[in-house]
Every structure is written in structure tokens, then in C-alpha cells.
User: Which sequence fits this backbone?
């Protein structure tokens, strides 16, 4: 650590990051003979021992299919799977476990809402509003829905700081608006959007709102009731849990009235060739054998972050971000892409005219993992008229020293190109 971050140091010392890092085995390795500095958390975060062990225990001790068996292993697997649902219900403050649907990830959750709710509800000429800063996962499913239904897609623009233009949003809203899809925290810019206000404005026109919380859940306290979100999605692998598991939260009354997304086992109550009856929530939306170990692992990941405390995580990451931003602002030829007032743990940047992929490749030689590219947000790249950015994204196990290492690495990048 350098001497220059006294204020951040106070936060750092009250947050035992070294102790936390002991829980993450993957962090203790070298890449190209340098200690790994993992700053690609927005793409996917690492897993603590507790999650890895829980998955191992499931396969070693009680792997079995859920909901169907009367034998002990199946009962144990079902208990743990449903316990995970309870943990997630509490984590997002849903009213009931019936509102928590296990899906593959944020992408599947959004497709589910578009195809089940959207296809059922939308008429030609109805309108869907999204924003210019959406991840492709919150663009393409709505475009597909528009093609299927004749609905029209409207887009809230962003300003050059990477903030939504809410005055345009207010103008776009009207009686034809049926769905608003909005990213909670931008994965390309780090902007934290005022989702509560966005939802309130949509509800004035009886439009429902889906919030893409893939980037928010690892960093912020999520309260779907306080937000009054109709749908909220999150992604397990970004929340220190396994890949292939995610959550769709939906208000019970909406989910109850929606047709199933996929047909098959588990989602039925009774099948005959004359009439099939669907199962109750949440099973109606979980056709087939679910990702049992994924759900259990995600439940343990939630136990883990809650033990540290989401408010502690938030405070610590905020100080990391402030420190990184200060260094970035002083770094010659560096331009930060995304300078919103309200920002989370994402630092997207350009370095002179060096291509982002070259930055990423050279940093990798020094053990530093960052993301480079369009971050599945091509319209954001188009707004800033760049093909790609380099992106460092932080988690609570990152340190101030690692940020120093990142900027030392960027000095090396500059040396190569001078
Ligand atoms: N939305 C956002 C904001 C994301 O960052 C991502 C992942 N990059 C997704 C959606 C897609 O999430 P998943 O991998 O869980 O499908």
C-alpha cells in the first residue's frame, strides 16, 4: 500500500481482507510467475471454500434427485435445495419462496419473463422501454419479443458520464408502455441506476418493471419489496456461487398468472393426453431436473456474504473504488469510461490509443486479470465511439495493493508502446 490513502486505510483495517482471502483458494496462485491479481469480478467472481465444500458434500454424501423420492437421500437433497430458496428469499427480501424461481442465470430469467409474461400480454403497438446501457441479455430477448408480438422497443439514452437521461424516460412513458427492463448496475460503466424511481414512474402507467440485478447483487443490499420491483434477476456465478444457476424473483400475483416457460417433468401436477394441469409456484417454472448442486452452492454463497455483511462489503468496496478512481484520474493518457456520480466497483477505461486487448494481454503477463472488449454492451461502446474498453472490476477480496499493482502494470503497458 502507498501512503496516500489514509482514509481508505481506516476502512481497510476494520475489514479483514487477508482473513477473507484465505477462504478463496484460487487467489493464491501465480500467473506468468506473478501473484494472481484477479480484477475480472464483473464477468464472474471466485468461490470461497465454503461453497466448493458444499458442492462436494452434495455429490459425495447426498446426491439424488429432488421432490420425487421418498428415500432419505432424496429427502435430504430436497431439503437443502428448498433451504437455498429460503436463503435467497431472505437475501432479496421477497414475500414468499414461491416468488423465487431457480434458472440458469440472469439471461434465462429475462428470457423467461419476455417469453412467458411478454408473449402472453403484449399486443402489436405496445411499447417496451429499455436503456442504452443494457447488457445484451436485457436487449435481445425484448427485440425477439417485439418481432413475435409487434411491440415496439424504446430506448432511454445515456449522457457522457454514463448516466440515464431520466427526462427522456419520462417522455417515453405512456399508456402503451407495458414493460420496462432496466439494469441496476451497468457492467460496462459501473453506473448505479435509480431503479426505485424508475419503477415508481413506470407504475404510474401500470407498466411492469424487470430489473437486471446481475451486477448489483454482489455489491448492494437488494430489497425487492422496497424497490417495488415486479421482476428482479440475479446471477449465481457473480455472487460467489456456482455457474449455471441464477434467480428470477417475480411478484407472486404476476407469476401465478403467467403461462409456463418450458414444459416437462416437475412443472406439472397431472398429465394426460386430454388435459395437463400445471404445478404450483415455484415449480411451474422449473421444468426438468434442476441444478441442485448449483442452488445449494448459491445458498452457501449467500450465507458467506451475509456473514461478512453486505453493508461491510459495500463500504469496503466503495473505498477500493475511490482509491482506484483517484489513481486512474492521475494516470497519464488514461480516460475513464463511465464517470457517473453514483458508481459501483467497475473501472472501465482507455489508455491513449492502445487497443484494449493489448492492455489486457500485457497485464496478463504480470498476473493481472482484467476484462477487455465490449462487455456485451455494444450500444455503450457505440455511444462512446470506441470498439472496446479495458475493465477492472473489484470484489471484497481485492486489496489496495492489488490496485497499486494494476497501475504499475499499466505503466508497463505504456513502456511497451513508447
Ligand atoms: N446482465 C448483466 C448486467 C451482466 O453483467 C451479465 C453477465 N455479464 C448478465 C446480465 C448475464 O448474466 P448470466 O451470465 O447470469 O446469464
Assistant:
Amino acid at each position: 500500500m502507498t501512503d496516500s490513502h489514509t482514509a481508505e486505510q481506516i476502512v481497510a483495517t476494520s475489514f479483514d481482507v487477508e482473513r477473507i482471502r484465505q477462504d478463496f483458494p484460487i487467489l493464491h496462485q501465480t500467473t506468468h510467475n506473478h501473484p494472481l491479481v484477479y480484477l475480472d469480478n464483473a464477468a464472474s467472481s471466485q468461490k470461497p471454500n465454503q461453497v466448493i465444500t458444499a458442492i462436494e458434500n452434495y455429490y459425495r454424501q447426498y446426491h439424488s434427485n429432488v421432490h420425487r423420492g421418498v428415500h432419505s437421500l432424496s429427502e435430504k437433497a430436497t431439503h437443502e435445495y428448498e433451504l437455498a430458496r429460503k436463503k435467497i428469499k431472505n437475501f432479496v427480501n421477497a414475500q414468499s419462496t414461491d416468488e423465487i424461481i431457480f434458472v440458469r442465470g440472469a439471461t434465462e430469467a429475462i428470457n423467461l419473463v419476455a417469453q412467458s409474461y411478454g408473449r402472453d400480454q403484449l399486443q402489436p403497438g405496445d411499447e417496451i422501454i429499455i436503456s442504452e446501457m443494457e447488457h445484451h441479455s436485457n436487449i435481445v430477448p425484448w427485440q425477439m419479443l417485439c418481432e413475435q408480438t409487434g411491440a415496439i422497443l424504446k430506448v432511454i439514452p445515456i449522457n457522457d458520464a454514463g448516466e440515464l437521461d431520466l427526462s427522456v424516460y419520462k417522455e417515453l412513458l405512456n399508456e402503451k408502455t407495458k414493460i420496462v427492463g432496466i439494469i441496476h448496475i451497468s457492467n460496462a460503466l459501473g453506473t448505479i441506476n435509480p431503479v426505485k424511481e424508475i419503477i415508481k414512474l413506470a407504475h404510474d402507467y401500470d407498466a411492469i418493471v424487470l430489473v437486471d440485478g446481475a451486477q448489483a447483487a454482489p455489491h448492494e443490499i437488494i430489497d425487492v419489496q422496497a424497490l417495488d420491483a415486479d421482476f428482479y434477476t440475479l446471477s449465481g456465478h457473480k455472487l460467489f456461487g456456482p455457474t449455471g444457476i441464477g434467480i428470477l424473483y417475480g411478484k407472486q400475483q404476476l407469476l401465478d398468472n403467467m403461462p409456463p416457460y418450458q414444459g416437462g417433468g416437475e412443472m406439472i401436477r397431472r398429465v394426460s393426453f386430454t388435459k395437463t394441469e400445471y404445478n404450483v409456484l415455484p415449480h411451474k417454472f422449473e421444468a426438468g431436473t434442476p441444478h441442485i448442486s448449483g442452488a445449494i452452492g448459491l445458498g452457501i454463497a449467500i450465507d458467506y456474504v451475509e456473514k461478512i455483511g453486505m453493508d461491510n462489503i459495500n463500504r469496503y468496496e466503495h473505498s477500493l473504488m475511490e482509491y482506484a478512481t483517484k489513481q486512474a484520474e492521475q494516470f497519464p493518457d488514461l480516460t475513464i469510461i463511465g464517470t457517473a456520480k453514483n458508481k459501483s466497483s467497475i473501472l472501465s477505461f482507455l489508455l491513449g490509443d492502445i487497443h484494449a486487448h493489448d492492455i489486457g494481454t500485457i497485464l496478463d503477463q504480470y498476473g493481472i486479470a482484467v476484462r477487455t472488449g465490449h462487455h456485451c454492451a455494444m450500444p455503450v461502446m457505440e455511444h462512446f465511439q470506441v470498439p472496446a474498453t479495458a475493465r477492472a472490476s473489484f470484489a471484497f477480496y481485492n486489496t489496495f495493493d492489488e490496485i497499486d499493482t494494476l497501475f504499475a502494470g499499466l505503466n508497463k503497458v505504456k513502456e511497451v508502446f513508447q
Observations:
- Residues 105-107, 135, 137, 183, 187, 212, 214-215, 235, 246, 376 surround 4'-deoxy-4'-aminopyridoxal-5'-phosphate (CB under 6 Å).
- The domain at 3-31+309-417 is CATH 3.90.1150.10 (Aspartate Aminotransferase, domain 1).
